[in-house]
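If your schedule permits, I should be very grateful for your opinion on a structural question. Thank you for your consideration; the sequence and its tokens are set out here:

===
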Amino acid sequence: MNRIGATPQATPDTDQQSRLRKIASRFEGVFVEQLFKAMRETVPSGGALDGGGGEDLFTSMLDQQVADSAPARWHRGLSSAIVKAFGPRVASSPEAR
């Protein structure tokens, strides 16, 4: 019997699904960060406005921050495709039982 306000016990299946979503989200962040890094490498550097090492550090940190926050705003991103593809496999795995 479930008491009012009591949280139901998590089943191994939901734990595995939640873990899959978390890992997919992290992977999506890393993917986006690498995408930004590759895009920045196409921009010519040098000249009068070159910021040197400080600018490189700042842009790297900025790319990481944006890569961490941007995928959370996407409704159908890479992580949802990963969960859709691997969700049934996780649910039927022996560890989920």
About this structure: Residues 12-37+54-96 form one domain. The mean pLDDT is 77.
